[in-house]
Amino acid sequence: MALELYERLCADDRRPSPYCWRARLALAHKGLKPDYRTVKFTEADRVAFSGQSKVPVLVDGEAVISDSWNIACYLEDHYPDAPSLFDGSGGRAMARFVNLWVDHGLQKALSSILAPYALAAAHPDDRTYYRQTREARYGESLEALATKRAVFLEALNPVLEPLRQRLNESPFFCGERPAYGDYLIFAEFQWARSVCDQDILAAEESALRVWRSCMLDLFDGLARSVTAYDTAA
Amino acid sequence: MALELYERLCADDRRPSPYCWRARLALAHKGLKPDYRTVKFTEADRVAFSGQSKVPVLVDGEAVISDSWNIACYLEDHYPDAPSLFDGSGGRAMARFVNLWVDHGLQKALSSILAPYALAAAHPDDRTYYRQTREARYGESLEALATKRAVFLEALNPVLEPLRQRLNESPFFCGERPAYGDYLIFAEFQWARSVCDQDILAAEESALRVWRSCMLDLFDGLARSVTAYDTAA
Question: Is the minimum CB–CB distance between A160 and chain B shorter than 8 Å?
Fold first, then answer.
């Protein structure tokens, strides 16, 4: 049966979307290898069959699932014999909270830093769309946003503190082995290295660097296999 | 066998410590009713038997456990037939991350608002200690900190966003029923209502207010049973 993941395509065949990386890594965790289908920002009609306009969208035979969280839950429920993404009902509930913290905390802190770079990384066909939507969101030009990079990096610092603390206790956020909580967080770092030629982590972030490198190695280097900057090599 | 919880005592018999509330609620979740032993900030010698100076400390027969996270794990492991605090190994791992996010995110945002109030709520014997340690931490007087309350409340607003989002999906952070993730977060709100006569939540925070009220009702109103301001009634 067809297993297809519709994901965002950017310039130079880049695949930066953190939401799509959540799905990519969840699929790999379950031992599943989808065919990738690409969707530019201005090609929302390509996923209209899913009843909405965003990626990722997973097609698994007759099933069509949109939204990265729904995809993770679908995989957990329909592939119960493969390694667990959540390790129990409590893990699913708390991972959902971590998902929302990533969306409204970590990603928000990162997006102010990355948006100007993401413009250059956007597919040429999407750059007008990307500029217009992001400048409307931030209320200023992406060039003006870029001038405040140092301020945003400073604001990111305390947001990373719970991550540092956790990695001082165990090699992965989910403990001895990576699971969905790790994918939620790593997807943001993968977004960063996909669009930005300057590392968002300072040289002294040793625990985060070690973890990020381990995450890049997972699943035969899945996250290393795409076009990206080697800032996190 | 003796079951005793050593916790912080403040003025008017108040028990504001969020760390101690994590332990109080975890014990209640397991159906356990400890005897409470009080410790002022300047009475660290009262828990010296635990090999460290902080509260909470749980004494369960021969076992002595300090640190709220260690206490939660101890209760989960030694009372496996009582309702689970984590609902699985994934729940424990992710709850630990949420614990660190509370410590370094939510609590940090709240402490700037609450510290000036906590001075008045501190036991009279502890006020000099409290002022000295907190003013050293903040690098300014508690009175100077208090003048910036509006700024700190504004900074708290985005920190609450993942909480709001989660409560739009389910009645508790842990899903249909409260578990340790709820206690971690609620303990911060209990700290607030224990020391501060002004609600930290705006009137329009409906989901958070409903959840907080439910949490106050748990275990026969355990959190309502202590001296506090009725800002969250």
Answer: no
Q: Using the beta-carbon criterion (under 8 Å), do A89 and B93 form an inter-chain contact? A: no
Structural class in CATH, domain B89-232: mainly alpha
pLDDT tens for each residue of A146-190: 999 999 999 999 999 999 999 999 999 999 999 999 999 999 999
Nearest to A88 among B87, B108, B166 (CB): B87
Closest CA to A78 of A173, A3, A25: A3
Question: Could you state, in order of their start, the residue ranges of all structural domains in chain A?
Answer: 3-78, 89-232
B90, B104, B108 ranked by CB distance to A90: nearest? B90
Asked if pLDDT for residue A100 goes beyond 80, the answer is yes
CA distance B48 to B62: 15
Average pLDDT, chain A: 97
CATH number of A3-78: 3.40.30.10
Selected residue of A97, A100, A186 to mutate for chain B interface (largest B Cβ count, 10 A): A97
**Cα A69 to Cα A118: distance, rounded to the nearest angstrom:** 23
Q: How far is A91 from chain B (nearest CA, A)?
A: 4
* Chain A residue closest in CA terms to B170: A93
Three-state SS string over B163-223 comes to HHHHHCCCCECCECCCCHHHHHHHHHHHHHHHHCCCCCCCCCCHHHHHHHHHHHHHHHHHH
Report if pTM > 0.90.
yes
pLDDT at B1: 75
